[in-house]
Design a protein that fits this description.
Layout (H helix, E strand, L loop, with lengths): L19 H6 L10 E7 L7 E2 L7 E3 L1 H13 L4 E6 L19 H12 L4 E6 L22 H18 L3 E4 L6 H11 L6 E8 L6 H7 L23 H13 L3 E5 L5 H10 L4 E5 L1 H12 L5 H15 L3 E4 L2 H8 L1
Parallel strand pairs: 1-3, 1-4, 1-10, 4-5, 5-6, 6-7, 7-8, 8-9, 9-10
Antiparallel strand pairs: 2-3
The structure holds ligand PBG.
The site of ligand PBG has 11 residues, from helix 6.
């Protein structure tokens, strides 16, 4: 009976999945090296690349190695890098004053990369967490129980101008203070950096997936004891409507590119953002998303190459035009 069972079907979607070439014809989403932005960590000195335990294959690089890495990324067709400094603990203070230092590590890194590899797009994080002893993205209120919004924005606007002067193509405010995009746009324009763009971390959630990154830049242990809750400025992962409020504000304040972060656990948000704007949408596949695939692969539980590809495909399919990912180089290599 089962062998003779027949359906009278007009529609058989499997017809288009029958052969590899048919499947290729109907493929809707394709990853390319130019979809990716590589986040890179930079350190002072001339030391060898420093491994980050929770991020296999990712290293903190000295300036010379950073330049080399940018050159090989450009050769592979990766169009952009996002630079993050890991500061010597002795340079950190309560107010993150090293962020406004004229010849700070990140500014030297930007100049070195733009000089050696001018064709690569360079963006830098605008936030104080690598510079503060407490690891928060801004300066604290006098009661020390919250980040002071407006005072922080004033500092970030000055920081953005310094970065623009060093030659970044895009500044990327990742702090989630109210009004920072408008203030930064105004400060850049006032200093005649009208061509320096803003990639806004518009929809950034207070996520547990940032853990490995905080190891990488040393912002996790900065406080020593208390937990690094960023819930008074980063979004509650439960809130979709509130995310859209942030998006609308950043758009109105002049962001050129709007970002959602993290990416994989927030595909619904990426899609919603995509539908709400014609501006380019970026998504950040964060350190914890990278770490979890590596951890499972190490245990032999997941295939790294395939899950890596699938995770990024899903982010692009959800609506991201560009993806910040620690897999950028591996992907560009695999795709070429
Ligand atoms: C901080 C910043 C964070 C990341 C990028 N910029 C961490 C945080 O908000 O604590 C996370 C990136 C990642 O996890 O890969 N301004």
């Amino acid at each position: 009976m089962a062998e003779n069972f027949k359906l009278d079907l007009t529609h058989r979607p499997r017809r288009l999945r029958r052969t590899a070439s048919l499947r290729a014809l109907v493929e809707e989403t394709v990853l390319r090296p130019q979809d990716f932005i590589a986040p890179l960590f930079v350190v002072e000195g001339k030391g060898r690349p420093e491994a980050i335990a929770s991020m296999p294959g990712i290293f903190r690089l000295n300036l010379a190695d950073l330049v080399k890495e940018c050159r090989s990324l450009a050769k592979l067709g990766v169009p952009a890098v996002a630079l993050f400094p890991k500061l010597d603990a002795r340079l950190k203070d309560e107010d993150g004053t090293a962020a406004l230092q004229e010849d700070g590590l990140i500014l030297r890194a930007v100049r070195a990369v733009k000089k050696a590899v001018p064709e690569i797009t360079v963006m830098t994080d605008i936030a104080l967490d690598p510079y503060t002893t407490h690891g928060h993205d801004g300066v604290l209120t006098s009661a020390r129980d919250d980040v002071a919004n407006d005072r922080t924005v004033g500092i970030l606007a000055r920081m953005a101008v310094l970065h623009a002067r060093a030659g970044v193509d895009l500044v990327a405010p990742s702090d989630m203070m109210d009004g920072r995009i408008g203030a930064i746009r105004k400060a850049l324009d006032a200093a005649s950096f009208t061509s320096t763009g803003i990639m806004a971390y518009s929809v950034k959630f207070a996520s547990a997936y940032y853990g490995p990154f905080r190891d990488a830049v040393g912002s996790a242990k900065a406080a020593g004891t208390h937990l690094l809750g960023k819930g008074t400025y980063q979004l509650n992962p439960a809130n979709r409507r509130e995310a859209m409020i942030e998006l609308v504000l950043d758009k109105a304040e002049g962001a050129d590119i709007l970002m959602v972060k993290p990416a994989g656990p927030y595909l619904d948000i990426i899609r919603e953002v995509r539908n709400a704007t014609n501006k380019p949408v970026a998504a950040y596949q964060v350190s914890g998303e990278y770490a979890q695939l590596h951890a499972a692969a190490k245990l032999g539980w997941l295939d790294l190459e395939r899950t890596r590809h699938e995770s990024l495909l899903a982010i692009k399919r959800a609506g991201a035009d560009m993806i910040l990912t620690y897999f950028a180089k591996d992907m560009a290599q695999a795709l070429s």
